[in-house]
Structure formats: structure tokens, C-alpha cells
Amino acid sequence: MNSGNGSIKIFAGGGGQLFAKRMCDWLGIELGKSEALTFSDGNTFVRVLEPVRDKDVYIVVPIATKPNDEFVELLFWLDAFKRASANSVTAIIPYFSYAKGDKKDEPRVSIRARVCAESIELAGANRVVTMDLHSPQVQGFFKIAVDNLVAMPILCEAAKTKLDLSNLVVVSPDAGFTKTARKYAKYLKCGIAIGDKTRASHDENAEVLNIIGQVEGCNALIVDDFSASGRTLTSVAKQLKNCGAKRVYACVTHGILSKEGLAEIQNSDIETLIVTDTMLNTNILKCDKLITVSVAPFFAHIVKSIHDREALSSFFDKVPDELINVFLDR
Q1: Could you tell me if 148 and 136 are in contact, meaning their C-beta atoms sit under 8 angstroms apart?
Q2: pLDDT band with cut points at 50, 70 and 90 for residue 288
Q3: Could you tell me whether strands 248-254 and 56-60 are parallel, antiparallel, or unpaired per DSSP bridges?
Q4: Is 126 within 8 Å of 58 (Cβ atoms)?
Q5: What's the rounded Cα separation, in Å, for the pair 29 and 10?
Q6: Strand pairing class (290-293; 219-226)
Q7: CA–CA distance, 282 with 57 (Å, rounded to integer)
Q8: In this structure, how many other beta carbons lie within 10 angstroms of the beta carbon of residue 76?
Q9: Three-state DSSP class for residue 54
Q10: Are 211 and 239 a contacting pair, CB within 8 Å?
Q11: Which one is catalytic: 21, 100, 186, 197?
Q12: Quick one: which of 11, 122, 206, 246 has the most CB atoms within 10 Å?
């Protein structure tokens, strides 16, 4: 696909190189020339290597596996493009990990997502495009436009292709994700069950105590927005098996799994885990249960729509037909 407009420019920082290259391939344009360096004292340096005056610039930086470094780099990129007289700068943040810090739910803690939002605005972003924010209300922390894309239709289509979805039930890992899980169930035309999850502290040790809903004799698809330790998914899977489920699969948008998390998945009752490529996580290449679905073409389509001043409202419930045939990595 060709964007048909020479004023659009996509650049990449840090872990966004492969994702941005896939976006450019879809749009039929060249990736912008830039460089980022880390000096021996840990300082980050960024430089744009081509003119961007009066261009609409899109900078791709997932805030993911090294969130502090990646966040600071994003701020420097935004500042660099503004100082180079770009017409507009859109921050493409496929995974925004600090969206988890959305509230002050105990004394003397920072609302981290709010701090990030204000910093991104002050550094010069005109717009933010991201996917499946852990707390969608984070959009309200910004005064600029924030497009929170939805991976659900792409993950569902991948599940239809790769998994046995006969006699299916979609499973939410906890009550908080139930609303989104119902959308998965509606898309896949099946029932829903809910995990009764408890977490004692800020560590990543969550325990699922029970499954609410009928799962006996069913194939179960656990859905969630991200997984880091893998413990929630594996705990749900164990309870599903205890309740008589036949086969257990999982879909998550952001596969931010550690080596230990992958070991948890590998040794669990989960047969297949489908994730997207919203971040570059080399760990997931080492697990044969993982299937990666690229959402880069979807982001590219959104960039083209933004650039062409088209409405985006239709993209929050479904994916354009031409993007349903997603390409997969193993």
C-alpha cells in the first residue's frame, strides 16, 4: 500500500525498529533515517538524520522491556522533531507499560501514568497512538488526542486459524477484565467464564482460587491485555483443568514475558499462547507454545487514516477487512 503523500515520515527508536519497518513496508515508504546512542555514563543521545521541516512525523517507541530508558528516549525524540520544525509529531507507543500506574490507591505513591502523560505533552507530542491500555482511563490524563487501538479482532482471527475453537468458552482471568472478555466472546460467538483472582501485594504472584461459569467439557480461551510473569495465566489454566476443561489456550495483546514467565507457560496446562508484536521481546522466540501476530499493518493503516484526515471511530470495534489476513511469526 502506498500512502500517496510524501509529507508522512515514520521513524523508530529503541525497540521500535522492526515494528516501524513493518509499518513502512505496509505503507510502501522508507523508514526515516535517525540514530540513538547510549554513552558509557548511561546518557541517551538521539539525532534525526534527514530534514523533517513541515513533515507529519510518526515516531515508534514501545515503552516495554526497558521502560525507563525507552520513555526518556521517546521524550528526546519528541523534542528533537519539534526543534527540527516538524509540522506535527505523533508518538506511536504500541505498548505503554506505565498505563498500569493510573491511580493513587494508597498513601504517598505517584500516579505514574499522569506524570508520563504530562511529560509526553511537554516534550512536544501532538497525538498518541497506542494499543490496549491496561487502564483505558489513562487517555484522560492527556490533553492531546489519544487513540487506544484494540487488538481483540486480530487475536480472534488468529485464534480461528490456529486453535480448536469447538465448544469454546472465553475466560477472563479476573472480574476487572470481564467487559473486554465479553467482547471476545461476542466476536467468537461463545460463552464466558471468570476467574476469581486474588493478589496479596505488589509482586507478580497472583492466585486464581476458582472459576465462575460452566467450563466442564469445553475448550477454554483465556484472554488478557498483557502477561509478564505468566502466573495469572497458568493459575487460571490449572483451575480450568481442575474444573474439567478439555483444552486450554490463551491470547494476550502484550507478551512482555520474562524468561521465568516463559518457563511457567512452557510447563503449564496452556497448549498455545497467542501474542502480538507490540514490543520486541527476544524471550518469546524460545517458547514453542508461542504464536506472534503482527499488528504493525493495523497501526500503519491508522497512520494513513490520520494523515488523510479520515475518521477513526470504526476501527475501535473491528479491523478493516484487508487486515484480517494477518501475517504470523514463529
Answers
A1: yes
A2: confident
A3: unpaired
A4: no
A5: 9
A6: unpaired
A7: 28
A8: 17
A9: coil
A10: yes
A11: 197
A12: 11
Whole-number Cα distances in Å, 323 to 22, 30, 80, 94, 290:
13, 21, 33, 17, 21
Q: Is 9 a catalytic residue?
A: no
Q: Integer distance in angstroms from the first to the last C-alpha of the chain?
A: 24
> 292: closest CA among 325, 257, 323, 328?
328
CA distance 135 to 130: 12
**pLDDT tens by residue, 141-193:** 999 999 999 999 999 999 999 999 999 999 999 888 999 999 999 999 999 99
Q: Is the dihedral of CA 181, 245, 252, 64 positive or negative?
A: positive
Do the beta carbons of residue 25 and residue 3 sit within 8 Å? no
- CA 279 – CA 99 distance, rounded (Å): 15
The DSSP code sequence of 128-150 is EEEE--SSGGGGGG-SSEEEEE-
Question: Which pLDDT value is given to residue 162?
Answer: 92
Q: CA–CA distance from 50 to each of 32, 54, 269 (Å)?
A: 7, 12, 51
Bridge partner residues of 169 (DSSP): 191, 220
Give the dihedral of Cα atoms 287, 18, 159, 132; nearest 10 deg. Answer: 110
What average pLDDT does this structure show over 108-121? 95
Q: Dihedral (C-alpha) 169, 182, 275, 161: value to the nearest 10 degrees?
A: 50
Split at pLDDT 50, 70, 90, the class of 240 is: very high
CB-based contact 270:237 (threshold 8 Å) = yes
